[in-house]
Write a structure and sequence with these properties.
β1 and β2 form a beta hairpin. This protein is 70% helix and 4% strand. By secondary structure, it is mostly helical. The protein is globular, with a radius of gyration of 16 Å.
Length: 100
């Protein structure tokens, strides 16, 4: 987990220094604004308009140096925060050989 956090921090630091493509910057701003709106329909429409999926957005988008779920929660947008959190889901691995 620490390695993952360090890698994400290094990636974010590298990207912060590089100039961002205007289209990408606009897309990220739109997605962050939709997340803070607490309007699930608007969030869904915005994510779909950029041909992304909720899981990708929930796991990768940063708004004001916070992950998008924390950002939405801080803005009081509980509906959109819950929608994004739900998209991450739970994955369980079951060893089928052990069940026999």
């Amino acid at each position: 987990m620490t390695t993952c956090a360090a890698t994400m921090f290094a990636l974010a630091a590298t990207q912060a220094n590089a100039s961002m493509d205007p289209f990408v910057e606009s897309a990220l701003q739109d997605i962050c604004e939709s997340a803070s709106s607490d309007n699930v329909f608007r969030l869904d429409r915005t994510i779909k308009s950029y041909r992304l999926n909720h899981q990708t957005v929930a796991l990768n988008v940063m708004c004001n140096e916070q992950d998008i779920i924390s950002f939405a929660q801080q803005q009081g947008a509980t509906k959109t925060a819950n929608r994004l959190e739900h998209s991450i889901g739970d994955t369980q691995i079951t060893d089928l050989a052990m069940l026999k």
